[in-house]
Every structure is written in C-alpha cells, then in structure tokens.
Amino acid sequence: MPIQVGIIGCGVVGAAIAYTLSQMPGVKVWVWDRRLPQAYEATGAALGVLMAVSSPKLKGRHLQLRLESLRQYEALIPRLQAQTHIEIPYNRQGILKLCFSVDELQRWQAIQGVRQRQGFGLEIWNAVQLSEFYPELMQARCLEPPMGVQGAIYSPDDRQVDPVVLTQALLVGAQRQGAQVRFETEIQAWREERGEMGEGSDRTLTHICTPQGDYALDWLIVAAGLGSVPLAAQWQHPVPMEPVLGQALQLRLPRPWRYPQPVISGNDIHLVPLNAQELWVGATVEFAANAEVPRADRQALERLYQGAIALYPDLAEAQILKTWSGHRPRPVGQAAPVIKRLSPYANVILASGHYRNGVLLAPITATKIQQFLCP
Ligand SMILES: Cc1cc2nc3c(=O)[nH]c(=O)nc-3n(C[C@H](O)[C@H](O)[C@H](O)COP(=O)(O)OP(=O)(O)OC[C@H]3O[C@@H](n4cnc5c(N)ncnc54)[C@H](O)[C@@H]3O)c2cc1C
C-alpha cells in the first residue's frame, strides 16, 4: 500500500510540497484547495523576488533556509520546464540594490565576506562604478529621508520568478507524477483515531472528509497560508498569524528600458522587469490597526509609486496597467516560516506563515516536509 499524503492548500508552498512528495516512490499525494484554479491568494499577489544572497542577515535559521532554497531553484526551474513544457519566467540577472548612504555601503563589506565563504558572489559598487554600469540609475533618490544614491550592491546569484506560472508548473508536474489535485474543495471536516491514552501524540488524523468522499491518510500537510489559522484553532493548537497587506503595480514605460536586467531594489521597493517596456513595482507593507484585516489604502499605493519614481524618474510618465493587493501570512510570536508537527496529532504537519518570502522558501519547505516523512 502506498503512503497516503494529503495537502491542504495549493498556493506556491502547497504546490512545491505536492511536486516534491509525488516524486517519492510509494507515496500517493492528494491536494485540496478551496479556490478556483485561476484565483490565487497570497501567491497571486507576490512579485517572486528571490532575495537570499542580498539579504542583510549575517547568520541564523532564516538565512540558511533562504540560501538553500535559492540553490534548489537553479535545478528546479530547468527540470520543471523540461517535464511540463511550461515556460517559467525566471530572471537570472540578479538583484541590484541601491544604497543611499556610505555607512550602508560599508556595512555590506562584512556581509560580502560571509557570502563568499558561503559560496556566493556579492559586489559592492561605489557611485563611480554604478555610473559606469548603470548611468540611468545615477538620479535615483530615497524620499525618506531625502538622499541621493551613493552606490549599490550587485548580487548576481539572486533571482526572480513568476509565482503564478511557477505554481501552475509545480501542479502540472505533480499531477504527471501521480498527484491528484481538487480545487473548489474547502477542508472543514476530518476523522481521527485516539490511542489508549486518548491524548497528545496518541491521536492520529485518519481521514479528510470532502463532498466527493472521505480520503484515508497517513500524513496531512497543512499549507493553507492564512487559512491554516482557523484549521489549527479547531485542533486546539492555535497558530497565531496576522495578515500583512501588500499592494503592487504593473507599469508600462513611455520608452523601452534596458532589458534583460536585474531586479532593481531601493528603499524596500522592487522594480521587477517583465519585458523591454513593462515592470512590476512593489510592494507596500501595511499592518492592520486593532487586529483587523488591513484594507488597501490608496495613499500607501501612491507613496509606493512616488518612491518608485524617485528610483527611476521615467516612471513618472508610465502608464499604470493594473494594481493589486494580497495578504502575507505573518506568524505572531514565532519566526517565519512555521514548519512543525501540529499537536495533538502525530501525523499532521504545518507548513505556513512564510510572510514576505513564501515564493523564495517554497522549495526548501518541501524538502523539510520530505524529511518529516523520511527522517
Ligand atoms: C504584494 C506581495 C508581494 C510579495 N512578494 C514576494 C516576493 O517577492 N518573494 C517572495 O518570496 N514572497 C513574496 N510574497 C509573499 C508570498 O506571496 C507568500 O509568502 C506566499 O505566497 C505564501 O504561500 P502559501 O502557499 O503559503 O499561501 P497562499 O498562496 O495564500 O495559499 C494558501 C492556499 O490555501 C488555500 N486554503 C486555505 N484554507 C483552506 C481550506 N480550509 N481548505 C482548502 N484550501 C484552503 C487557499 O485557497 C490558498 O490557495 C509577497 C506577498 C505579497 C502579498
């Protein structure tokens, strides 16, 4: 009998888990999602910036996860493309991070040494070097506090990927490997078995109940983003998470810009090149007052747009093609992401709360889940 694994949620995290687990011999994967196939939650709002090497962190679990996931992407993308024949937009030009103070540039020297030892390149450019390579960025400014550009960090190994196309490819790949995916199926019911003690890890979740029938399971993976909160609460295992709103824009430039080129980042605003004349700009980071769900605020979007114009003045004449927003799942009281056994069950694992880096961390999350199944 194959090992039966159920996954709740197929945003980018659930899709990566489904793809990885369905490669394992003797494992049968089921995926359920309440959404329509084309209607994404957090994953549909993401810019897909894979910022690992140019993260300012020097050490720690989060940095290790970021770097390891970035490494995995290099093999994952060509493999998925070959397997599914889906062209996945994947920017290999790196990330160019603009710096607005000399102090900031100097701080990067310590990080550069650490990254070299970790096997990654990181270049620190002063204003003269930046003007040689990217003269069009010499007018870049930071609005708050008002400062002109002093140089840049160029990270050739960081990447950017289209999150929706990636998720579609992961699901197609998973299905080719035998996974069964069911949309428009919200999971609200299950059956369990209690051991003699009736408590703690003595309990096992045995079935997921859906309108199409009950599915017997050996393992359940909860990759439901913010939807993991009500599920965990019903199991008396609260996993506090707050929705943090992000807004973004797609713009069309009045004239072509350099293409291909790296993601340009400055003052926590990303300019993500899509083609010779279009780009994504994002994203705001908006917290809710009074523990409510934050709503898109037009002033915050306008500040984002003005901040982007300060980085690249041609954007003042750009046409706004679309704007959108989404909620990032941010864990409260514990570090992102939350990948752990979810008591009281011995066979339920939570893989949620990826906050601002769910696209980046999806491959390593899938690897961690695989290690739970085969320690
Ligand atoms: C504006 C914005 C920009 C971002 N940019 C980046 C970026 O550049 N790089 C990066 O790495 N990350 C970025 N992120 C973060 C990233 O989007 C998230 O971390 C990531 O998408 C989380 O993926 P997920 O699969 O956990 O969640 P989701 O995409 O929310 O997927 C969860 C799925 O679970 C389903 N679900 C929930 N409850 C149930 C239930 N009971 N039954 C069935 N299905 C259920 C939902 O329908 C949903 O499809 C950004 C986020 C935003 C909002």
How is the secondary structure organized here?
Blueprint: E1 3-8, H1 12-21, E2 27-32, H2 42-45, E3 49-50, H3 61-84, E4 90-91, E5 95-99, H4 102-117, E6 123-126, H5 127-133, E7 141-142, E8 147-148, E9 151-155, E10 159-161, H6 163-176, E11 180-182, E12 189-194, E13 203-210, E14 213-216, E15 219-222, H7 228-234, E16 241-252, E17 263-266, E18 269-273, E19 278-282, H8 298-311, E20 319-331, E21 338-341, E22 348-352, H9 358-373
Parallel strand pairs: 1-2, 1-15, 2-11, 5-17, 15-22
Antiparallel strand pairs: 3-10, 4-10, 5-9, 6-9, 7-8, 12-13, 13-14, 16-19, 16-20, 17-18, 18-19, 21-22
Helix pairs in contact: 1-6, 1-9, 3-6, 3-9
Q: Give a quick account of the main beta sheet: strands, pairing sense, barrel closure.
A: 8 strands, mixed
Number of helices: 9
The helicity comes to 25-40%
What is the average of the pLDDT values? 95
